[in-house]
Amino acid sequence: MLAKMKVCVITVWTILDPLYYAFTRLKYVEDKEILRVRVTKYKGRPCVLSDGTEIKRNDLLIKIHLHNVMLLRELMSLKGETSKARVIYNHVKSALPGVANYLYNHPKKDEIKGIIGITGLNKGSNRLGFETVAISNRIYLWFKFLVILPMYCMSVSSISAKNIRRPPMYLLMSKDKLFELYK
Q: What is the pTM of this model?
């Protein structure tokens, strides 16, 4: 019963995704890529990344979005959270060179300081070159938690209270680090 419900939700989501894509001004960095991007202004607290890059309010960043419905369709056939985490990790790792190329060729390349994502799937993100930064605005944190919760429930075999309580975080990577690792 639960599996049929997940298939139904993913089918509806697949139909609605092109509207979401259009309204959020997202761009594919490569055809049928797992990451979609757009330029955004940073709204979090100021932070300094490990390479010395300062990220302040209203700095330009490339926001990366996982193509969730594409990813969920693939994860449905997998058993075990480790296998699912490995698939997500590998997809993101293989997509980051495309993000680096997109940023390298962007007309505002000199103004853009790096890339940002928001996720509850931040375990292991440092191996990809990301640094995690807590979301300081409590209202925005709860909003993102509520947005991420259905995706989490759709992706796991069994829901764990321990994982549900993992808060969403900003994932940040400076432009220099992105180019060093993936260009």
A: 0.86
